[in-house]
């Protein structure tokens, strides 16, 4: 039961972040707005990463729709979203083609110097642009920089994403991904 409680809380936090229209439902418009927020971080002319992120967000919406999660008004309720995150989106093949596709394109887009890493400033700026308070993304960075190098590698970022979406452990560093420490809750 505790595993589900932790996953429920994380997916509920994600629901709130995705609810761009703040109406208590997720719609295709919310996913389009999330895609627009993420693609706004991409350099002009980087159509490959922009397209990859947008397509992945739309695949995410399609997974919810195809699993029967969308009601007759084109909306997904919080409980339905949480249930489909557990049973559909986190299924390994889907997770790779949806969530990790966004992560990979985002890292590629932001890694303008080819270092394969995000510095603390880059990380905080990125999350600020995505609507996450820098007061929470700064301590999150320290937790996600597992090797203490002062940068988050692509592998460290992927690990954090996997922990946030897949780990039932309330103490996992990846739970800080959106600046929402679950261990305290």
TrEMBL record:
The keyword Ribonucleoprotein does not apply. Keywords: Calcium, Repeat. GO terms for molecular function: calcium ion binding. The keyword Repeat applies. It holds the Pfam family EF-hand_5. Residues 98-133, 140-167 form the EF-hand domain. InterPro entries: Centrin_CML-like (IPR050145), EF-hand-dom_pair (IPR011992), EF_Hand_1_Ca_BS (IPR018247), EF_hand_dom (IPR002048). SUPFAM superfamilies: EF-hand. This is Calcium-binding protein. It comes from Streptomyces rimosus subsp. rimosus (strain ATCC 10970 / DSM 40260 / JCM 4667 / NRRL 2234).
């Amino acid at each position: 039961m505790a595993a589900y409680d932790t996953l429920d809380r994380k997916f509920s936090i994600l629901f709130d972040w995705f609810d761009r229209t703040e109406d208590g439902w997720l719609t295709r418009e919310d996913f389009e707005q999330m895609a627009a927020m993420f693609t706004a971080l991409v350099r002009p002319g980087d159509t490959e990463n922009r397209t990859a992120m947008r397509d992945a967000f739309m695949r995410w919406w399609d997974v919810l729709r195809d699993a029967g999660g969308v009601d007759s008004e084109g909306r997904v309720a919080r409980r339905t979203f949480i249930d489909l995150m557990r049973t559909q989106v986190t299924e390994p093949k889907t997770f790779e083609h949806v969530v990790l596709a966004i992560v990979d394109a985002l890292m590629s887009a932001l890694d303008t110097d080819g270092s394969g890493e995000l510095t603390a400033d880059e990380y905080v700026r990125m999350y600020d642009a995505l609507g996450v308070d820098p007061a929470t993304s700064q301590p999150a960075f320290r937790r996600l920089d597992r090797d203490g190098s002062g940068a988050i590698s692509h592998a460290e970022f992927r690990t954090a994403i996997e922990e946030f979406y897949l780990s039932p452990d309330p103490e996992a560093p990846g739970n800080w991904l959106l600046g929402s420490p679950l261990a305290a809750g």
